[in-house]
Amino acid sequence: HYGFDKPMHERLWLMLKNYAQLDFGNSFFRGAKVTDLILQKLPVSISLGVWATLITYLISIPLGIRKAIHNGSKFDVWTSTAIIIGYAMPAFLFAILLIVVFAGGSYVSWFPIQGMVSDDFDSLSFFGKIADYLWHMVLPVSALVIGGFATLTILTKNSFLNEISRQYVVTARAKGLTEKRVLYGHVLRNAMLLVVAGVPQALIEVFFAGSLLIETIFNLDGIGRMSYEAAISRDYPVVFGTLFLFTLFGLLIKLIGDICYTLLDPRIDFSARNA
């Protein structure tokens, strides 16, 4: 049943062959194929990761640019203080704080405390289903965003400050270009190189590192929670299947980041280097 009756090299080859076909076997305790379980839980983790990443970038990049433009001002100081506090606060602790304040803990009850949708979700209209889904996503996504946007904001600010002091910026201003044209036409593209380089790590952290505790706190049945429960119960096919999936996604995200880097910076020409 476990394959231990075969020699080591045969077991390794069989495992590699099955994994290449995305065949991870059957769960020991859930009575289903690991692939089916992953496909069942994947939408929850993707929902959290996509919304958290999108909101993080929509906040961090404009905020980082404005902090660079107003470097040393009161705005820069108090936003840096807020960023440091947010970065120092663990996502799970912020999630508990959100529940206490906004989900009927001790103050108001504006948002649901668990799940992705309400019990009467199927009876709602199309727009009602969208509103209900977004309503349930507010607290868990906010908990994921709080720690992720700090690093990206500081990275964006430092990249802009580094590019603003370059000679080509001085030349562009001397030619009479407007400040908006200089910042968004010249500086933005070069400053985004470091931000793009940090995208893979940011995505991996949002999708995988923070999902487990958030899914557990808000009772979201995603891959992170399933992999944790599988590790506790020693459900090895599920553990190895989710680990393989996390690794594969991580490699694909890094590859996409490298492609974006080459598109933003034409100076990166690997064929010319090899020649």
Topology:
Blueprint: H1 8-20, H2 34-69, H3 74-88, H4 91-102, H5 126-164, H6 167-174, H7 179-197, H8 199-209, H9 211-217, H10 223-233, H11 236-264, H12 270-274
Helix pairs in contact: 2-5, 2-8, 2-11, 3-5, 4-5, 5-7, 7-11, 8-11, 9-10, 10-11
Task: Give your account of this protein's structure.
The protein has twelve helices and no strands. By secondary structure, it is mainly α. The model has no long low-confidence stretch (mean pLDDT 78).
Could you list some keywords that capture this structure?
single chain, 275 residues, mainly alpha, 12 helices, globular
In short:
The protein has 275 residues and is mainly α. The chain contains twelve helices and no strands.
Q: What best-fitting shape do the alpha-carbon axes yield? A: globular
Summed over residues and divided by their number, the pLDDT gives a mean of 78
- The parts where pLDDT drops under 50 for at least 5 residues are none
H/E series:
HHHHHHHHHHHH
User: What count of helical segments does DSSP give?
Assistant: 12
Please provide the count of β strands. 0
Radius of gyration from the alpha-carbon trace, in angstroms = 23 Å
Major beta-sheet overview: none
Helix-strand category: mainly alpha
**Helical coverage, percent range:** over 70%
Q: For the record, give the distance between the C-alpha atoms at the N and C termini, rounded to a whole number.
A: 53 Å
- Please indicate the percent range of residues in DSSP E strands (runs of 2 or more): under 5%
